[in-house]
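Following up on my earlier message about protoporphyrin IX containing FE. Here are the inputs again, as you asked, copied directly from the submission form:
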Amino acid sequence: MMHSTLILCALSTLVLGFLPNVFATVAEEDVPAVVQNMRDINKGFRTLRRQIDDTDQKDENLKLIAQIRADLVAASKEEPLKTPELPASERDAFLKGYRQLMDSVLAEMDKLKAAVSAGNNAEAKSLLRQINELKKQGHGKYQKEE
Ligand code: HEM
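Thanks, got it. Here's what our run produced:
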């Protein structure tokens, strides 16, 4: 009796110990690079928006902007998931449009960096709104419908 309780305990510890790993595996599903880049960009902006008014976080905010910028550059080197579904004759123009819009976002990121460096929060917030508009535009044209 004592034995089986011990074995049961050991087994459940083992199973419970592995459970988080199982969930982690599901969470880190193998997503395409462009999707992962977008998730990183999204996370970066969420943090940035939360602390953009905090002048104590200026260095941290500039780091976030540099990181988001790098993720945007990485995303622009990838292709939207719906590219292969388009007629071959349309793909070049589609990718060109995608990369041009990404370049517009990058140009706004550079203005954002300048605004944060100068401590101009009102300007920084207005640029964040502007970037959000470009995001909506980008998703409308380039994101695959679920
Ligand atoms: C700048 C702010 C942006 C943010 C915060 C953002 C955020 C996101 C998020 C959260 C996703 C969903 C990821 C998932 O499925 O888990 C996504 C997907 C995507 N976004 Fe963005 N995005 C931004 C800008 C853009 C722009 C400007 C474009 C196009 C020029 C774009 C194109 C796409 C594409 C193509 C996908 C999904 C993959 C696909 O369907 O091909 N995004 N984005």
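One observation from looking it over: The longest helix spans residues 88-117. Hope that helps, and feel free to reply on this thread.
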